[in-house]
């Protein structure tokens, strides 16, 4: 069997002809396998959706309970047959419930990684390298310049600033699914015991994480009438809230933002970020290349980011490689690679 008979690009996204389903389709399809709940991968309207229990629950929170005509939950490592193709899900380490999709037919194995990271995260199952013939990798940070520092050390910068400027509110921008919860957990791990104040948009997903056993300590919603009365507090908000009228209600805030793109100082300046924190839920260059090697793949397909550099790296190591040039749409909640 040729790889393209098992998986190929299509106008609706990655398509499995042998099983007649799509992986993370960009348009509505009859049957979809979804890697995780971010809106540039998960959308409403599909006929049937297969994903982890957590991803299905998060999709329901974000898209409504009837986001698909039928939903099928699959545990990590449990195989299921779809049209003669053996499909299984494996941890991606990106956010809660995130998965790689393993496809096998006639001895050929292709793994679609979705979004992934290979560093510890207290809020999700660690990334699991899956041996395969063809590996489909993201490349959000697919350039050698992107080497993320230790996330705990970045959180220490935030806490040091809180101690240095106790009269000012620290307004921390973090993506609402995964990044915000990871930062809360890391802040607690670093010994910060005071209340964390949350924008209302973070509550439903944070509550769901807590229902899955995550303990974030004392969390308090930010009341509109009390925003100016939060000196010394850490306030966490989604990126879109950082640029609207809501953010202007704080007295002399220090604007912080957590993203792998904060490595690029020009991006921090463009956002008006006073304290950039280089914290990403995507693998950096070293993480990408180490993960690819760990799969033992003979062929690499690259998508979502700096495809050419990773293709060149693979080819220089005798791994067949090509870019997929798939379009990564912006989700209706503003989700895209700029908040990675």
Automatic annotation (TrEMBL):
Transmembrane segments: none annotated. This is mRNA 3-end processing factor. SUPFAM superfamilies: Metallo-hydrolase/oxidoreductase. It comes from the Bacteria. The lineage of its organism: Bacteria, Pseudomonadati, Pseudomonadota, Alphaproteobacteria, Hyphomicrobiales. InterPro entries: MBL (IPR050698), RibonucZ/Hydroxyglut_hydro (IPR036866), Xnuc_lig_assoc (IPR026360). Gene3D superfamilies: Ribonuclease Z/Hydroxyacylglutathione hydrolase-like.
């Amino acid at each position: 069997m040729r790889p393209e008979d098992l998986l190929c690009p299509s106008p609706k996204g990655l398509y499995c002809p042998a099983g007649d389903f799509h992986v993370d389709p960009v348009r509505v399809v009859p049957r979809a396998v979804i890697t995780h709940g971010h809106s540039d991968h998960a959308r409403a309207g599909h006929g049937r959706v297969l994903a982890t229990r957590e991803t299905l629950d998060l999709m329901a929170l974000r898209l409504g309970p009837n986001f698909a005509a039928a939903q099928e939950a699959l545990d990590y490592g449990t195989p299921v047959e779809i049209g003669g193709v053996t499909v299984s899900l494996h941890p991606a380490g990106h956010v809660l419930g995130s998965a790689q999709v393993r496809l096998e037919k006639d001895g050929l194995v292709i793994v679609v990684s979705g979004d992934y990271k290979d560093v510890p995260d207290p809020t999700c199952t660690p990334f699991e390298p899956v041996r395969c013939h063809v590996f489909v990798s993201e490349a959000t940070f697919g350039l050698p310049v992107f080497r993320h520092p230790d996330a705990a050390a970045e959180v220490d910068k935030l806490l040091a600033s809180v101690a240095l400027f106790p009269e000012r509110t620290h307004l921390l921008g973090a993506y609402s699914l995964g990044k915000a919860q990871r930062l809360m957990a890391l802040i607690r791990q670093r010994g910060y015991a005071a209340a964390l104040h949350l924008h209302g948009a973070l509550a439903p997903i944070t509550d769901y994480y807590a229902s899955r056993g995550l303990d974030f300590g004392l969390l308090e919603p930010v009341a509109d009438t009390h925003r100016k009365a939060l000196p010394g507090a850490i306030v966490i908000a989604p990126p879109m809230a950082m640029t609207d009228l809501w953010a202007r209600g704080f007295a002399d805030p220090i604007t912080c933002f957590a993203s792998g793109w904060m490595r690029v100082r020009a991006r921090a300046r463009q956002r008006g970020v006073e304290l950039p924190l280089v914290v990403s839920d995507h693998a950096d260059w070293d993480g990408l290349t180490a993960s690819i090697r760990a799969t033992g793949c003979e062929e690499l397909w690259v998508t979502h980011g700096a495809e050419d550099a990773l293709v060149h790296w693979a080819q220089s190591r005798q791994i067949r490689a090509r870019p997929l040039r798939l379009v990564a749409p912006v989700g209706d909640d503003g989700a895209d690679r700029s908040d990675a």
